[in-house]
Design brief:
About 40% of the residues lie in helices and about 20% in strands. With about 450 residues, the chain is α+β, with helices and mostly antiparallel strands. α2 (about 40-55) runs antiparallel to α6 and α6 packs parallel to α10 (about 250-265). The structure holds histidyl-adenosine monophosphate. Histidyl-adenosine monophosphate binds near residues 104, 141 and 301. Histidyl-adenosine monophosphate binds next to β6, β10, β11 and α12.
Length: about 450
């Protein structure tokens, strides 16, 4: 039997309502960071900024949009990020811009564009901000996420800088009281030894060409190092016996890596060598590493050396020694929740201003500005009318004093100061209240 017209209409309007609701939700993989979470975010910001200050990294903010070439040339066209994950937009003027998927390539661009290469070297930079990757959203993986990071550019390719980058990263997490950290490290060599390794791994995988996944078949010819990054079940046993980069390092790369490890040993910083660690961005050479916590399933941060990035971008004809690290803030905040780590406490107000009646509300509204001028934080609940309701809020906010303006006080140009601990009240002239509160702080 055909559905009655009324029922059909209702179904249609329900569908429209559902669609309307969905179109007003935040984009897939992008979240609101609500006030309740902000104290945790503030704590991560403070820990990263304090670490940057201690190790002498200066803050830099680069645009959220960069020209597409910055990432295509820098990260590499055959990487997942550039192949599948960039949010690309075309401006009215015809420029192809990208919502930055990471910051290292943009930082190298900014370093040359702003003449930082002419300053005393190395240049140590720190950043905190949003990044965008069009990935399949899941726990710890978003389309808009945040990173903080440390980069050392210019000067020598001294292994001490690799160690300092790792150290600064670990210290920033320790500052947050994140425990059970582990560091995985590898060396992917330089242009010279990578050629040899490339041939070795291609030779090795050729034997298994019928057994490996579709992606690996492509990687084997386009970007053989990424074969070690494969997560496909059927490739795992093959990967396990694959030749390790570390066994094909040239003498200078071997000695560079040994020195990095010696610095870490000197700090008593434990690490494990991971022969399969190659990382998903093409700009790395020599040291690559990732940092984990036992209590979280994914990497909290990762980084490495990227001496060829300036050349890849075409901003320099020769190498620019550089090394850096970045951390995923969403993952750190999730871990802080798992570990029951509290956020940065909100600055506490000293006094709560209570008003009863319209004339008192008008006076209270202006009085708050007197406190603002004096730099004393006073809070209020101007929407509430009753004394009891306002005292309840004052109690909850754990203020030391309540300042009470009733009809009588407005008439007498006075105000009551009530000590919230012992309930003792004193009436003072309204014109003196700021000084009287200051005296009691
Ligand atoms: P990355 O390994 O791609 O490296 O990202 C660093 C960290 O950012 C990851 O370990 C993870 O915590 C976080 N992250 C990455 N993608 C997402 C996502 N979709 N959702 C949530 N968190 C994410 C880089 O970005 C390099 N620029 C690191 C570097 C700095 N290398 C040298 N200097």
């Amino acid at each position: 039997m055909p559905k009655p017209l009324k029922q059909k209409k209702q179904k249609k309007s329900e569908k429209a309502e559902k669609e309307n609701k969905a179109s007003l939700q935040s984009p897939k993989g992008m979240r609101d960071i609500l006030p309740i979470e902000q104290p945790l975010w503030e704590k991560v910001k403070k820990a990263s900024q304090d670490t940057a200050n201690f190790y002498n990294f200066s803050k830099i903010d680069t645009p959220i949009l960069e020209k597409a070439e910055v990432f295509e040339r820098g990260i590499g066209v055959s990487t997942d990020i550039v192949e599948k994950e960039m949010f690309v937009l075309k401006t009215k003027g015809g420029d192809r811009l990208v919502l930055r998927p990471e910051n290292t390539a943009g930082i190298v661009r900014a370093y040359f564009e702003n003449g930082m290469s002419h300053m005393p070297q190395p240049t140590k930079l720190y950043y905190f901000g949003p990044f965008f990757r069009h990935e399949q959203p899941q726990a710890g993986r978003y389309r808009q996420f945040h990173q903080y990071g440390f980069e050392i550019l210019g000067g020598e390719d001294d292994p001490v800088y690799d160690a300092q980058i790792i150290l600064a990263g670990i210290r920033s997490l320790e500052e947050l009281k994140i425990k059970n950290l582990s560091l995985q490290i590898n060396s992917v060599g330089c242009r010279n030894c990578r050629q040899v390794y490339r041939r070795k791994i291609q030779e090795y995988y050729r034997r298994f060409s019928a057994k490996i996944c579709k992606d690996c078949k492509r990687r084997a010819s386009v970007n053989p190092l990424r074969l070690l990054d494969c997560k496909n079940e059927k490739c795992q046993p093959i990967k396990e016996d694959a030749p390790a980069t570390i066994n094909y390092l040239c003498a200078p790369c071997r000695s560079h890596f040994r020195e990095v490890l010696e610095y870490l040993d000197g700090l008593n910083l434990p690490y494990s060598l991971n022969n399969f660690l190659v990382r998903g961005l093409d700009y790395y050479n020599r040291t690559v590493f990732e940092i984990f916590s036992e209590s979280y399933p994914g990497a909290l941060g990762g980084g490495g050396r990227y001496d060829y990035l300036a050349e890849l971008l075409g901003v320099k004809k020769s190498e620019l020694p550089a090394v850096g690290v970045s951390f995923g803030v969403e993952r750190i905040v999730e871990l802080m929740k798992i570990m029951d780590i509290s956020g940065l406490p909100k600055p506490k107000a000293k006094a709560f201003l209570i008003q009863i009646g319209k004339p008192a509300k008008k006076k209270a509204f202006l009085l708050i500005e007197e406190f603002h001028k004096a730099g004393i934080k006073v809070i209020e609940s101007l929407g509430r009318e009753s004394l009891r309701a306002q005292l309840k809020v004052a109690d909850k906010e754990e203020v030391e004093m309540a300042l009470i303006l009733g009809q009588r006080e407005v008439f007498e140009e006075s105000i009551i100061i009530r000590d919230m601990k012992n309930g003792v009240q004193e009436t003072v002239p309204l014109s003196k209240v700021v000084d009287e509160v200051r005296k009691r702080l």
